[in-house]
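Researcher: Quick sanity check before group meeting.
Model: Go ahead. Protein one:
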Amino acid sequence: METYFKPLFLALQKRIMENVPEIRFIDQNIGQLGFDEYRAMVSFPAVLVDFPSTSFSALSGNAQLGISFIEITLVFAPYSQTYQMASDNVKDLGLQYFEIEQKVFAAMQGWDCEGLCTPLIRTQAQSQNNNDIGMRVRKLTFSTSFEDYTLDHDEYREVEFKFSGDIIP
């Protein structure tokens, strides 16, 4: 049986690797930040991908229209200080994560995930500063939609018609 989320995840992973070389680790978000043993396997800066919710409506037969949200969580080790007395070059290092976030946004916004869905639209960007691990965490949420014909595979088959001859008015 075909699935939508597997090729979507792999396409997202590839797109980020190609467009944001600063990212050193891309995986599904399975709670790595909450557990020391999993967090130890993560290289920073990192991207964790999740599909937190998808709503579906009927098209025809068993086909469905899915409206999905994609969360891209960016995780940065604290590189440098950003307090007001720090030198500009120290602050630049401390704020570098904003530049990486912008690159991720630029790679995702308007991209159709290799034809898997409608172009992604950023719907939210938020900080997650209430973590107790001392990391800088930013979450970008994108929305998209797709048509799921996996249960009606035989019913929606591509057909090619060939015509040879003349058309008489």
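Researcher: Fine. The other one?
Model: Protein two, sequence then structure:
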Amino acid sequence: MIKTIVVPIDIAEKEPGVVALGLARDLAKTQGAKLILLSVVERVPSYIAAQLPEGSHDKTLSGAAARLDEIAAELGLAEMAEVVVREGHPSTEILEYANKIDADMIVIGSHDPGLIDYFLGSVAARVVRHAHCSVLVARKSQT
């Protein structure tokens, strides 16, 4: 039985996350599972952070949480979904968070791979390879 589903969403590229969230919502409803929307904000190197206005980092984190709240509300999930924002490398943070909360499943959106993905690999591919729970990769409709 699935009790906890983590849905990583890249707020900069919303569409794959929304596709994944739709599937996760349906799964959560049928399984009675808890739904967690996760966004990861990449760390800014210290030499750059020192040049940014004070409080800009906190503003970025709170902005990511607000955007996740908006996405949840747009899909009618405001009451059902928990929003979490973490800081670091996306695949690492997704995997660490899923392990930390003992998630039963990760539902992650995937975009059309670009040249950089062939050399470095995508976040979804790393999550699939290293997750300790089931992973569902949702692709956007090709129609």
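Researcher: One line on it for the slide.
Model: The two ends are 32 Å apart (CA to CA).
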